Amino acid sequence: MKQAVVAEGLSKSFGAVEALKAASFSVSGAELFGLIGADGAGKTTLFRILATLLLPDSGKATLLDLDTVAGYRQIRTRIGYMPGRFSLYQDLSVEENLNFFATVFGATVEENYELIRDIYAQLEPFRKRRAGQLSGGMKQKLALSCALVHRPELLLLDEPTTGVDAVSRQEFWQMLRRLKSQGITILVSTPYMDEASLCDRVAFMQDGRILAIDTPQGITKLFTKPLFAVRASDKHRLIIELRSFEHTRSAYAFGSSVHYTDRRSDAAPEELAAWLRSRGFGDATVERIAPGIEDTFMALMENGAAQSRKEEAGDG
Amino acid sequence: MKRRFTSMRASLAVVGHLLRKEFLQIFRNRGMLPIIFIMPFIQLVILSNAATFDVPQVRFHLQDFDRSALSDRLVKRFTSTGYFKMTGESFRQKSGIDALVAGKSEMVLVIPEDFEQEMMTGGHARIQLLIDAEDGFTAGVIRGYANEIVASFNRDLPELLPQLAGTQSVLPVIDIRSRGWYNPELIYTDYMVPGVLVVLVTLIGLFLSGMNVVREKEIGTIDQINVTPIRRWQFITGKLVPFWIIGLSELTVGLVIARLGFHVPMLGSYGVIYLVAAIYLLVVLGMGLLISTVTESQQQAMFIAWFFMVIFTLLSGLFTPIESMPHWAQNLTLFNPVRHFVDIMRRVMLKGAGIGDITTPLFMLAVQAIILLSFAVNRYRKVSV
């Protein structure tokens, strides 16, 4: 099996809302594949179709060479799904949840303990505690353990790190890398762009469409315009001024600096620095930088939004 | 063959795990436990004692315009029974009505002037009973009591007025003495307890099962269940059996209270009652599961369950006899499982009916169980469109 997931032209509408518009992508075996997109981009709908919980309006998907509609029964025994919302039994203890989900798959915690040991070890002290009383990070670890306990070949994780603190998020991604090294294919979605660089490949979603699919390094190549990091003491006023500059394409805060893109492909940093000084930013520095993945997404998002606007205008 | 056997064992094992999980959850829910195991019996005790049609004492207002020895005799008849208590006396018609309106009396006894005189000369006289019929049932009971007293007064008239003996042409010769069978002392708790017990078992079964699947939908756990290889029948069985067991335990405790606390007779066999209850609970739980699968929130499920519960109880013959309902409503009650079980419980406990006597209602219940359960299994989908 080369491709663990193949989706072809998946579409789904809820009433007048088109949640998913002809989404196509594929995930190779033992790949860590990320779906990045803001809330409402259609990630959860896509996950529910792949998890065999929702039928697509059109298009088809195969998981582990099984069709999601015809082969849903076999698929369910071979995948692990972790919904975006915490969906374990809050009134059962950590241990009881894990045992329950192991046994309904006909497995036991003991025989697959090896796989979940790293994750479950951190939960062990709380194993008598009810799931509802765990912290956000612990809940996610338990949910991952429950999704893994029957040793699935493919993991579908819908926004596993949403609402989890930064340290737990980092730990969570380390666990995913370890699982991947054991040959498990992982499809994970996240609204956090910084998590994209941790994936083997990412797909960027917006308004139900997949706008780009590439490796985190490759995706930055989509960013073709020059990118400058601008620094000045009054960052807030700096952004406002930059947005009024005639050649500005975009200007947004990025850490301690402001990332600026120009409409022209041959813009020079010296020119911008001179203009800024003329506007009263005596200490302004401008430096050309290589685009990061987040810059690429920001640009993709703007393009996507512009395209949607164009389509709407065309419809009218 | 052997493979089929092992796969069957495996799938039954899954049901076992589901059952274990359900029971863990039920017994862990501190809010629900008293509702399941204590409240029904408090209700049983309160309702069975309170829901009685006996009218213990009737307060009446007297307007004796005759004030003769005979009228005095008649009044004594009323007061000496213990049922009637005189709460006032007046000689203005309006005062009597006022007493009714003010709720000070349930009845006004009016004895006209010349009551004794007319009786002596004409051999018959009239009295008037004004009964507060705001509550038709109570009014009927009062009229019954009063008629009986007047009738017995009539019978004894020759003794009271010996001079009348010759002139009275028709004397009552038939002395009616009624005797109630199956409940000779007309003890209302005997009649009410079996019925109230049915309503409580229904209430618990319908609400517990009705809230259950929809709760999993509400908190999202149904998603996690749906991606497992658990089959539909396994899931539904896992949901049914715990409430079925709880329903039968409630019935058992209720029967113990009925026998030991209320001394309700048990002329029939417990076997028949449990057989019927086992089928009846399938109807109730099937209905609850159906409600649970078609609703999206516990609130919706709650309202639908209440809607049916009220209709079922009022059309069950528990409080108002089915025979006194309009024809269309009587037909409607044939589809009411509560009606059949109330009927069977009373017949088995008070009349000692055997399985052969209750085949028709039992058949109705079995048909309803099959229909509702197949609907519930069919409506529960593991994939949404």
UniProtKB/TrEMBL annotation, chain A:
<keyword id="KW-0547">Nucleotide-binding</keyword>
<dbReference type="InterPro" id="IPR003439">
    <property type="entry name" value="ABC_transporter-like_ATP-bd"/>
</dbReference>
<dbReference type="InterPro" id="IPR003593">
    <property type="entry name" value="AAA+_ATPase"/>
</dbReference>
<dbReference type="InterPro" id="IPR017871">
    <property type="entry name" value="ABC_transporter-like_CS"/>
</dbReference>
<protein>
    <submittedName>
        <fullName>ABC transporter ATP-binding protein</fullName>
    </submittedName>
</protein>
<dbReference type="GO" id="GO:0005524">
    <property type="term" value="F:ATP binding"/>
</dbReference>
<dbReference type="Pfam" id="PF00005">
    <property type="entry name" value="ABC_tran"/>
</dbReference>
<feature type="domain" description="ABC transporter">
    <location>
        <begin position="5"/>
        <end position="232"/>
    </location>
</feature>
<dbReference type="GO" id="GO:0016887">
    <property type="term" value="F:ATP hydrolysis activity"/>
</dbReference>
<keyword id="KW-0067">ATP-binding</keyword>
<dbReference type="InterPro" id="IPR027417">
    <property type="entry name" value="P-loop_NTPase"/>
</dbReference>
